[in-house]
Each structure stands twice: as C-alpha cells, then as structure tokens.
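[Meeting: bench + compute handoff]

Bench side (C.D.) handed over the final construct sequence. Compute side (W.E.) agreed to return the predicted structure before the next meeting so the bench team could plan truncations. Sequence as handed over:
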Amino acid sequence: MDIFAHALWAGAGAQKLNESLEKRGKTKVSILWSAFWGIFPDLFAFSIPSVLTLYALLVGTTTFQKLSERGPHLQPDNQAFDLAHNLYQYSHSLIIFFVVFGVVWFIFKRPRLEMLGWLLHILIDIPSHSINFFPTPFLFPLSNYRFPYGIAWSNQIFMIVNYSLLLLVFLYFSFRKKKFRK
C-alpha cells in the first residue's frame, strides 16, 4: 500500500482505539505517533536507499538499465536497491515487530500502543503486495514465505476501493464526532 494510505489507516486505527480507551478511562494514544509508526516500515526500508540513489545519480556513479531490460517494476540496478530489499525484510516482519514491541514494552513498563501502526502496516501489506513486487516477508527471519495471492496496491481498482474505504471511515468519525457534540 502507498505510504499516505498507511498513515491514514494507522491514524484511523488510533482514533478507534482512543474511543475504546476513553470509555474505560484509560490514557489515549497519539494519532500522529500512530501515523508515524504506520509509515515507519517504508521509511526504514526506503529512505536511506533513496538518498543513496539520488546522490549516486547526481554524481554519476550509477547506471540504470533501459526500461525494456528492467521490466515493468522500474527497479534501479544498484546497491541501494539491494539495501532496500534487505531493510524491507526487517521492517516488514511480524517477528521483528513483536520483538521490538516487547523490548519497548519492557523499557517503558507499558505497551506503547502507537507502535500498533507498524503492526497494521505489515498486516495490510501482506494481501496488498503482489508476489512480483516487494512481497511482504512477514515471517522473516524464521521463514522466506510470502503470501502468493496478493493484489498489487498500485492496481487502479484497489486504489479506488482503498481510498473509498478510507473516506467512509473518516466520514464515520466526522459524523460520530458531530453527534456527540449535540
């Protein structure tokens, strides 16, 4: 899924979680931090390689294959892309997420629920990435299994459905908020 949609879904999840926590008198979670954790896996996997690729292009130290040779995915042929693939395995792994979440819980003596945006990111990416382009390695490092039946998030129909659902979710929150004000 695209990074903007990940931020919106994580923010929506935090909003719903806050409604539940508020009813029980518990501390609310930060929607902004939840949105950050919702995009964290992609930021982690692609920021450094993107900067390295941009630098390499600017100083002329990398080459790109012709589009016809690269195939439909427009993947650069350089070390930064290999780095992105390696970092992607770590940031999109449920195993890594639960280990980090547990360590953070231990350090702070309570779960940092904003980090659930990261979990949501992984769970959304499993069915929304095709096997041909960045399939989600959600069981890394225990297994190389990737869900083989995912639909590419860049598919036009998927994008329309995804953003329509996001619109409905945020309209729901908006109407609910107005209802409680009255």
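W.E. noted at the follow-up: The chain is about 65% helix and 0% strand. C.D. will use this when planning the next construct.
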